[in-house]
Design brief:
With 405 residues, the chain is an alpha+beta fold. The chain is 25% helix and 28% strand. The chain has nine helices and 20 strands. A hairpin with a 2-residue loop joins strand 10 and strand 11. Bound molecules: zinc ion.
Length: 405
């Protein structure tokens, strides 16, 4: 059995995850210390690392591992069946792994990594998706090489990944880093200001309200980096605008490997309005601070997510915005930068949905959008989409009229 031929490389400034055992290859017994969920005489499965999650597992003496994948809370819950675990093996051997899903079914193509940083897809000839009595199963066959192997639904993009990325950005003279506040479990919710902190016009960008939505993060990173590029348009943009970016609003959910919620069982993107949660209240306070400043004007709000395909949820024509027509101009400009790629837009608005996009529009009357990247969109393409979205956004905002008062 050979591993996939194409690699997904996620290397953000060379950051590493805080693995309990470090990065050196470890024999199975060394990993048995912490977080082991099931084991046999030659194999063990553990979740003793940040983002690690599975509901239960078992291993039989035929090297067959069965992993049950279930959400953090009772259904109904959005079907985002996150899993992340590590298989340790001694000696090298052929393994059959069954990922068993509840009623939500299979969603994320299994991926593997030796170091938790560089990821590859399991090759399609080694993965078999089937369904029994309405329940999906993904069977993966692979040969271990004696080193621990991470297996997850998506690349692991953990709080430490963000911290490392922010540290790298912080070196830029037009970036200042701040702590917005703390999550329910006390994790830092960090942000950066990009551009002139005194600028009148403000753009707010957030991400990762939903923990497994890693591809949205994979677009947000290049999006922000493009705004920090050396291009003359980026430099001009940073002079005229103040951008506030909060890349990970739900660090608890991310760290715990949740499918959807924070630690109070709440979908944060259904809490804009009630604001019952510490994480969403921090965002409300940030927005109210912008709203209270008479010399400040919010111009645009973008919220990065993932779903099964690339799409942008926009407002409908009935929602007048200031600046007017900005989102249409953005979509057209974004499309023009992506020959051979079709930009999908899905307009909609429900004032009572308690979704970030709806609340920010109702409160400020500015263009708002939920920017969604597909779960399995080609990772190189995601990078290009993030770049193009930033270039399009800067271009249309620079062409927009400055607010009259
Ligand atoms: Zn989402």
């Amino acid at each position: 059995m050979i591993f996939g031929a194409f690699a997904v490389v996620l290397s953000l400034g060379g950051c590493a995850l805080p693995l309990t055992e470090g990065h050196a290859p470890q024999p199975a017994k060394a990993i048995l210390a912490e977080g082991v969920r099931c084991s046999s005489s030659t194999l063990s499965v553990d979740t003793g690392f940040v983002t690690g999650a599975l509901a239960s597992c078992s291993i039989d003496e035929g090297n067959r591992i069965t992993v049950a994948i279930e959400p953090e809370d009772e259904p109904p819950i959005n079907c985002s069946p996150w899993y992340a675990f590590r298989v340790a093996s001694e000696p090298a051997q052929d393994v059959q792994l069954d990922l068993t899903y509840g009623t939500c079914g299979h969603r994320y193509w299994p991926k593997f990594s030796h170091d938790g940083v560089t990821w590859e897809y399991f090759h399609s000839s080694d993965v078999e998706i089937s369904s029994f009595a309405g329940l999906d199963r993904a069977r993966v066959r692979f040969r271990t090489d004696g080193k621990p192997l991470f297996i997850a639904g998506q690349e692991i993009v953990a709080p430490v990944t963000y911290a490392s990325w922010l540290s790298r950005l912080e070196a830029h003279p037009d970036v200042s880093r701040f702590e917005l506040g703390r999550s329910a479990q006390g994790r830092a919710i960090e942000g950066i200001i990009v551009g002139d902190p005194q600028a009148r016009e403000v753009v707010v960008v957030i991400g990762r309200q939903h923990p497994p939505e890693v591809t949205g993060a994979l677009a947000l990173f290049p999006f922000v980096e493009t705004i920090l590029s050396d291009s003359s348009e980026a430099a001009e943009f940073r002079k005229r605008f103040k951008m506030v970016i909060v890349p990970m609003l739900n660090p608890d959910g991310v760290a715990l490997g949740h499918w959807r919620h924070n630690t109070s069982g709440v979908d944060l993107n259904r809490d804009w309005g009630p604001f019952t949660q510490p994480e969403t209240r921090l965002m409300r306070d940030l927005f109210e601070e912008i709203g209270a400043e008479t010399n400040r004007k919010l111009r645009l709000f973008l919220d990065f997510h993932s779903t099964r395909y690339d799409t942008i949820y926009t407002l409908t024509e009935e929602q007048a915005t200031d600046p007017p027509g900005l989102m249409d101009a953005f979509i057209a400009d974004y499309q023009a930068r992506l020959p051979g790629y079709w930009v999908q837009e899905e307009p909609g608005h429900n004032a009572d949905s308690a979704v970030a996009k709806a609340w920010v529009y109702e409160r400020f009357g500015v263009p708002t959008a939920t920017y969604e990247i597909g779960d399995e969109t080609d990772r190189e393409l995601i990078g290009k989409l993030g770049n193009a979205a930033a270039e399009a956004m800067m271009h249309v905002l620079l062409k927009s009229d400055a607010p009259a008062n």
